[in-house]
Design brief:
Chain lengths: ~650, ~650
């Protein structure tokens, strides 16, 4: 294993950026149908091949006339022209407008020969010309549409309400330049030109090779006892590649066998513009990749002085670029976004997303002293009356708090909104310090409301009623502490809250107790059975409010027996065996690996297990007093008030 | 036609927004494979179905041990444990760690039974235990990987470098809430849970019915003489629907026949959540649609007090919503974006794009006095040293200038960057006044450099070398005037520039003259032939620099003949017949509808026509002196300097 160490000549992040910029990811060009060209980038200039419009075109409903025939006409002295016929849109005119005549015309119709202007229908009347002329030499108004003449109450200049052929775009004109991204507007202009296929830049083809014998594709069965896990990076990175404008191709998993790795990597390199490897965190797989790149191509750098992402590789195969991403999903995605996505966007001709970043303030202090650049995932909280970062600048502030559950945790993917790049010389960020947050995508919004605290099934359905909430189940104790620090918008807690300043938004009660096998075959009767009988128990951690409630009950039992608490719990097998999540003790009972678990009546019923009630505890939703004006808090108050309490063991 | 007028009870824009909000565009839900779920929106909550990780997992390469065996160990006093075996990622452990033993373990591997902590390989050495013990009871360092024991130079607590089963997500935990948009991060979390299909909101299906007998789909042949034009709205609106998160379905064109329109509209209504009609500007087609909606469904409103977009319709079929868009492409797209796209985004569960707007200043004054809300298309110019609107806020300004070529012009689609909504009471916007520009899409960037002036083939290839330039061919005269007003970054002109303040970036000469049929069958010899012979001539407009140059030559000819200019030009057939675009006179010659046209040698050669030279004129690129620091101007200067002059008739 020690041979690995010599690979690590860590280069500064700037060198990694330069190395990736030096790679050629250009995918060439391709013809695509216009209908499917949205978002693509023109590979060459498009000149107009025809005039738009292709003919002199009426731009109003009315009558096509010779302007000269209308000179001097007005309300007081209308001109009367004989009706020579009609022209409709989409039809060839079968009428010529001679002096003294007019032709009815629709918007968009071809101007008939002889006519050089159009009068709007609103400025005309149809009259009977022949008869009235015979009687008194004047037209009679109001003869309706049946009249054989038209009276114009306005004079016209040549060209009035006529769009000349080529007035919009003329044949030979430059319509769109190379590099133009095709949005609905450009698609519109190309449609007008009759173009139905365009030459665009091909999307850079990016092959993704997952490494690691332990990986299983989602949807397949995973054998946990053999250490198998689902492959997170393949789909995550593929989706991120597509978001950046590339086309992703997934290759089969490669284990750490040299021959197999070589076969997969060279196949991917032959078919793609860029090969990304990712997946395994095992040193031996990384070593094998390293050797394959060295043998088949060139390694430009190995190891970057950045956290996370140290084990990043950059190289070239003869016909493809190569980047090796770290194995942990969060690290892999961060390194991809930071180093690789800009290169894919460049090759695809995509602009950098404009709003990839927002300004924020640190919600808490953060210490970091490793002396290399750190990409710190952070969650955002809008502290003002409005939820958006944008509006936050008009009054409210946006707060950023570090999300660091260790790079192995996929949940930190969704608990963070973006990344703060912390320079190698920054060892300390103060609470309130200004930071720039590089968002995971331009669509990222801070949650409408951000809460922490106890895990609770009724709360879960309350959250479902809210629009984009974020809730971290860190237990009542940590929840209260964070609320005291002023970070979250609300905390959900059980037990005593001392004298914390907070506004209670509402609450409910829940039945808690011991979860046992269906129908309680062991006849577990209460807490004393855990002490006195040989039962395997699963507890919850001390941060959990449920555990706090249990601890109180344990003390009562000890008191009533005249024993010390410690004596009592030492006799409970598994009292210190704490499962992090609400349902975990119950699930251990269900799987047969425990006889009793601390839990809720609702969990027992959900999982079809037995339940031995030990009491009822109150769950309270407490709002940060500084954030009462946040719309998300108002929505939460309402959702708590409307929360259905039909869950077993839940009451008001 | 007068019967139409009674339809028009214009409602305020707010009522149109409300009417559209009242429509039900919900497309239901559907299962999609995770691999194709990017951008989709979860229809229901996803709870974890399993623990992640599914087993207690080593988070370091090293040795799995019992923490108790390491108590008190340190650099000075290492602990030595017998090597009991090895566990690799993706394999079931075949070793049990008894007291006093350790098992080699890779990152990600299953913790073997008995072990409760992992020591990093860096804090260990492999030693020969058995032999050294025999010799002197102490392990010998540096025995390498072959040693049968491991020496630990650190003490461990239970759980060190172990990720417990369920530590990331535990079975039963809420993983993602309903309404969550799936980006790479959420795809990652779902992958970790083994989910490969998700229930998402269906994209609202939007049917697009183009109306108008004159419309032809791009790619087909268009018969201009019959007034046919390409259908612009179908593809434009379909693309805009997709951009908003909908799924677009194009229906066949419907003419203004009641039966045909009814058939197409009811078919679309049966298959779609929303039907949009658009295309025809003809009153009769709109009337027919109106009647169909009234007969088959309900019309909620007809006519909105907004410009453009007055003729907008909102209604409902029994199973579908309906919106009728204006016929002109620019109007149709603006009304779609303003009223319809937000409703589609809502139904699709998409967030409003964050940066749909930028703050700008009016570059020129604008008067408008119609008393109804106006959606004014504007182009953007970054005036500062940096091109982006974002950076503009840190120093430079973003200027907005109205683009109004009439709603019939598709080119204004690409010459504008967004829309300024001008209230009904605003009759005047001053130059410098602050306006908020609603961008056509979040990806819209102001052009890197914005120029106006003469049309010129060499300039066109210079533009191709620039990244996102915008150039409006408004002729030398208008170009100079706009440059004087300080609006564009540069102007391209021929002829005299008086004493305009500008910096010349470079220029070239071009041969101009008369373009005639191939090989000049009429033997046209010069300008005098136009005066003296019966030749049909096509000129350029007076704004064109080329026309200015011709006018000078005409005056010289008149002087030399002792005639007045007016006498001379009255004898030129077509002297006042000005074609807007550079190649249009030549193309009229090519089509046989003219004998001679004003143009350039390069145009004649490009189109394979004859050329009678009349002179050489200088084309100059003049920069706005206030914008010399714009990077786009520097890039332009360079591109002008490098411009290839191999075009026929072009020189330095």
């Amino acid at each position: 294993m020690s041979s690995r160490k010599e690979f690590r000549e860590l280069v500064p992040p700037e060198e990694a950026h330069e190395a990736i910029e030096s790679l050629d990811l250009d995918g060439g060009t391709e013809e695509v149908p216009l209908r499917e060209a949205r978002g693509r980038v023109l590979a060459e200039r498009v000149d107009a091949g025809l005039d738009v419009p292709g003919f002199d075109r009426a731009s109003m409903d009315g009558y096509a006339v010779r302007a000269r025939d209308t000179f001097g006409a007005g309300e007081a002295d209308p001109a009367v022209l004989e009706l020579a016929g009609a022209v409709h849109a989409g039809a060839e005119p079968d009428v010529t407008v001679e002096a003294g005549t007019a032709a009815e015309i629709s918007t968009g119709a071809v101007m008939p020969e002889g006519a050089d202007a159009v009068v709007m229908v609103e400025r005309t009347d149809r009259v009977e010309r022949s008869s009235t002329e015979r009687e008194n030499g004047e037209a009679v108004n109001g003869a309706g549409e049946g009249g054989d003449a038209v009276e114009l109450r306005t004079s016209l200049a040549p060209g009035d309400h006529v769009m000349l052929a080529g007035a919009d775009v003329a044949a030979g004109e430059r319509a769109l330049g190379p590099g133009t991204r095709l949005t609905p507007r450009e698609i519109g202009l190309l449609s007008a030109l009759g173009v139905d296929e365009v030459l665009v830049r091909s999307k850079p083809r990016v092959g993704i090779v997952s490494t690691g014998d332990e990986l299983v594709r989602p949807g397949e069965a995973v054998a946990s006892e053999r250490g198998q896990i689902y492959d997170v990076n393949s789909y995550t990175i593929a989706t991120a590649v597509e978001e950046a404008g590339g086309e992703a191709a997934l290759y089969p998993h490669a284990g750490d066998d040299y021959g197999e790795m070589e076969r997969v990597l060279t196949e991917a390199a032959a078919e793609c513009d860029l090969v990304l490897s990712s997946g395994s965190t095992s040193a031996s797989a990384v070593d094998v990749i390293y050797r394959v790149i060295e043998d088949q191509g060139e390694l430009l750098l190995h190891g970057v002085a950045i956290k996370p992402g140290k084990p990043m590789l950059v190289g070239e195969f003869p016909d493809s670029a190569y980047v090796g991403l770290p194995g942990y999903p969060v690290s892999a995605l961060m390194i991809f976004r930071h180093f690789v996505a800009p290169a894919i966007r460049r090759a695809a001709g995509r602009p950098e997303p404009r709003t990839a970043s927002v300004e924020a303030e640190m919600a808490v202090e953060e210490r970091y002293g490793e002396g290399r650049t750190r990409l710190m995932p952070v969650g955002l909280i809008g502290s003002g009356p409005s939820e958006t970062a944008r509006d936050a600048s008009n009054g409210g502030r946006t707060l950023a708090y570090p999300v660091d559950k260790g790079s192995g945790a996929t949940t930190s993917l969704v608990e963070a909104d973006g990344i703060v790049e912390v320079g190698p010389d920054t060892a300390y960020l103060d609470a309130g310090e200004a930071v720039s947050v590089d968002l995971f995508s331009p669509d990222v919004r801070p949650p409408t409301v951000f809460g922490v605290g106890e895990d609770d099934p009724l709360l879960t359905s309350v959250l479902d009623d809210l629009d984009r909430p974020r809730y971290l189940t860190i237990g009542s104790r940590q929840g209260l502490r964070r609320l005291e620090q002023g970070v979250p918008d609300f905390a959900v807690v059980t037990g005593a809250t001392d004298d914390i300043e907070a506004r209670e938004l509402g609450g409910w009660t829940r039945d808690w107790g011991l979860i046992v096998a269906p129908d309680n075959p062991g006849g577990v009767d209460g807490l004393a059975d855990l002490v006195d009988r040989e039962l395997r128990f699963v507890n919850r951690p001390t941060d959990s409010g449920l555990r706090g409630t249990l601890d109180g009950t344990v003390e009562d039992l000890a008191d009533s027996r005249g024993e010390s608490r410690n004596e009592l719990v030492e006799r409970i097998d598994g009292f210190e065996l704490a499962a992090r999540a609400l349902e975990s003790p119950a699930r251990k009972v269900a799987s047969g690996s425990a006889d009793a678990g601390l839990g809720l009546r609702s969990t027992a019923e959900k999982l079809g297990l037995g339940f031995v009630p030990l009491g009822e505890e109150r769950v309270r939703v407490l709002a940060n007093p500084e954030r009462l004006e946040k719309p998300g808090i108002e929505a939460l108050r309402e959702a708590v008030g409307n929360a259905p309490t039909e869950l077993p063991g839940v009451g008001r």
